[in-house]
Amino acid sequence: MTRIYDCSVDTEYAAGMRLARSAIGRGALVVIPTDTVYGVAADAFSPEAVQRLLDAKGRDRTSPPPVLIPGIPTLDALAQDVPPPVRDLVAAFWPGGLTVVLNAQPSLVWDLGDTRGTVALRMPRNKIALDLLAETGPLAVSSANSSGLPSAIDAIGAEDMLGSSVAVYLDGGVAGGDYEPIGDRPGDTSSTIVDATRFAQNGGKLVIVRNGVISRDAIAAVIGDALAPVGFVAEEPEPEPDPEPEPEPEAPGPIDTATDAGRP
Questions:
Q1: Which H, E and C letters describe 236-260, residue by residue?
Q2: CA neighbor of 140 nearest in space, from 63, 87, 210
């Protein structure tokens, strides 16, 4: 039976964390508080667990979940070609409400959905989330809500939407209280998402693809002109030309017996 564990009570915190670790290990789902909103978490390296997460939210593989990580050193283990402005941003805003989309390390053995070789990474600023991540490693975590509904900011709200599809709910109080709700929707305390996957092709620009609790002005104050302006449209890559057709081999001509007579 699914239960909500009040993490402000030491005994419930210990029990909830133990059961959450066990649930992640067997491929089940856990709801956790973060500094922005509540998230529903799964083992990022278990395709079955990630699919269970997508099913619980009513999403398909075209909406792959972000990955929460326990510390900045994990960034290079999961992403390649991290541009210097991204390193500046994570130094300034991690742990916190900034998600960065990067090209994933090609050696990773995971299936988050139709990622096109990218991964969205964030280090949350929440003790409960970080304690669990320290035990489990990176987790696929999406907002704790049914697709199309507002993200839950408390455990009760998450349970109302996700119900028994989740094995363990960790209650850390109301999320998002440390931020001004300046996201794309009224009252939204979701993280800001910055895309760096086409940094080189974009002329050394990072693109904000979702407004959230870290403001554009705050990001610009850190990376300056490396932030793409509002309305920036990335250039599409040039299609590669079709290969030239191979020439047809010429038919052999008649043998010249006079000149070929001395050949072995």
A1: CCCCCCCCCCCCCCCCCCCCCHHHH
A2: 63
Cα–Cα–Cα angle for 181, 59, 196, nearest 5°?
Answer: 60
| CA pair distance 25, 49, nearest whole angstrom | 10
Name every residue whose Cβ is closer than 8 Å to that of residue 165 and which is 6 or more positions away in sequence: 29, 52, 55, 56
Domain ranges of the chain: 4-226
DSSP symbol at 53 = H
Superfamily designation of domain 4-226: DHBP synthase (3.90.870.10)
State the 10-residue block means of pLDDT for the chain, 264 residues long: 91 98 98 98 97 96 96 96 98 98 94 95 98 98 94 97 97 96 89 97 96 97 97 66 59 44 38
